[in-house]
Automatic annotation (TrEMBL):
Gene3D superfamilies: Lactate dehydrogenase/glycoside hydrolase, family 4, C-terminal, NAD(P)-binding Rossmann-like Domain
Gene coding for it: mdh
Provenance organism: Sphaerisporangium album
EC number per UniProt: 1.1.1.37
Function comment: Catalyzes the reversible oxidation of malate to oxaloacetate.
Family classification: Belongs to the LDH/MDH superfamily. MDH type 2 family.
Domain Lactate/malate dehydrogenase C-terminal: 157-320
Binding site for NAD(+): G12, A13, A14, G15, Q16, I17, G18, N106, Q113, V130, G131, N132
Active site residues per record: H188 (proton acceptor)
Name of the protein in question: Malate dehydrogenase
Membrane spanning stretches: none
InterPro entries named in the record: L-lactate/malate_DH, Lactate/malate_DH_C, Lactate/malate_DH_N, Lactate_DH/Glyco_Ohase_4_C, Malate_DH_AS, Malate_DH_type2, NAD(P)-bd_dom_sf
Length: 328
């Protein structure tokens, strides 16, 4: 193997998503079966030892593509020369914590990480924010990285997208492969809007194949509140499915989305579909030549308009809150 390894940095590497993610990256599922990788694990000092344990296990897998593992508690070191940055570690909301406290705590993480990416990452760096509130954390990181093109900062709604595929497939008793053109619009939160008016099942509009009451009263809330349902059932938030979605997101970004289909990505808005420029909001997107492009010209009916606007309004409120805290 002569190709230089791609450096992939994972923050929160000792957490549960990290544990579900690292082995899949090292096995070649993130970038492809021929692409060597070097892993960089960023953790807080108290969790470095646990990250070292995970690194020992990675060694024990003898992955042919894995060319090295570095562990650090310093973002300037962990992002040095990084090509792919997966920002997973975040401050979860704890009992009694106000929304402003949560945003402030995450600003303390994603601000310095954005700056470290700005100052040290490779010129082609691609960033995926998974840690919640993902869209706004991505906005904070991007705002602290003025030298990195805004299009390189994304947040994850692929898990919501995959959840929507699965719920619809189960309802219609079809394989997920018969569904295309699914879109999650807006925020990775309960206000997100999974759109069946543009999605297709075997080439026909999905909304025409289900009854409206199911679409509005079952499908949308089931997808939008799935994260909370997983927490309720597992006693911990989704981990393997979140890691799987991160793999899907980066794999498609680097290798391209399939012809005739698109996926959902929270991207910096260019004003498309009335989403204010600069917000990091989920859109239908294709990847061509290693770049995300928002799919243009989709019809947005009155119901969809209302739902998209509600989620985008929430994103605007989050942006105003972090701006008020001086984080962007
Ligand atoms: P976890 O608590 O198991 O792990 C988080 C890890 O991050 C911990 O090991 C912690 O030490 C580390 N960490 C905290 N601050 C850090 C910092 N400044 N630098 C580096 N590491 C740091 O949590 P998890 O289950 O792995 O989830 C991680 C995040 O992903 C959470 O915010 C969760 O809400 C979010 N999440 C997002 C999605 C999505 O679809 N976008 C889905 C599931 C979970
Ligand atoms: C999910 O969608 O599963 C998570 O974002 C839920 C959470 O709050 O961690």
């Amino acid at each position: 193997m002569t190709q230089a390894p791609v450096k992939v940095t994972v923050t929160g590497a000792a957490g549960q998503i990290g544990y579900a993610l690292l082995f899949r990256i090292a096995s070649g599922q993130l970038l492809g079966p021929d692409v060597p990788v070097r892993l960089s694990l960023l953790e807080i000092p108290q969790a470095v030892k646990a990250a070292e344990g995970t690194a020992m296990e990675l060694d024990d897998c003898a992955f042919p593509l894995l060319q090295g593992i570095d562990i650090s508690d310093d973002p300037n070191v962990a992002f040095d020369g990084t090509n792919v940055a997966l920002l997973v570690g975040a401050r979860p909301r704890t009992a009694g914590m106000e929304r402003g406290d949560l945003l402030q705590a995450n600003g303390g993480i994603f601000g310095p990480q954005g700056k470290a990416i700005n100052d040290h990452a490779a010129g082609d760096v691609r960033v995926l924010v998974v840690g919640n509130p993902a869209n706004t954390n991505a906005l904070i990181a991007r705002s602290n990285a003025p030298d990195v093109p805004a299009e390189r900062f994304t947040a994850m709604t692929r898990l919501d997208h995959n959840r929507a595929l699965s719920q619809l497939a189960a309802k219609l008793d079809v394989p997920v492969t018969s569904i295309s053109k699914m879109t999650i619009w807006g925020n990775h939160s309960a206000t997100q809007y999974p759109d069946l008016y543009n999605a297709e099942v075997n080439g026909k509009i999905a909304a025409e194949q289900v009854d409206e009451a199911w679409l509005r009263d079952t499908f949308i809330p089931t997808v939008a509140k799935r994260g909370a349902a997983i927490i309720e059932a597992r006693g911990a938030s989704s981990a393997a499915s979140a890691a799987n979605a991160a793999i899907d997101h980066v794999h498609d970004w680097v290798n391209g989305t399939p012809e005739g289909d698109w996926t959902s990505v929270a991207l910096t808005s260019d004003g498309s579909y009335g989403v204010p420029e600069g917000l990091i909001s989920s859109f239908p997107a294709v990847s061509r030549g290693g770049r995300w492009e928002i799919v243009q010209g989709l019809p947005v009916n009155a119901f969809s308009r209302e739902r998209i606007d509600a989620s985008v309004r929430e994103l605007g409120e989050e942006r105003d809150a972090v701006a008020g805290l001086g984080l962007i």
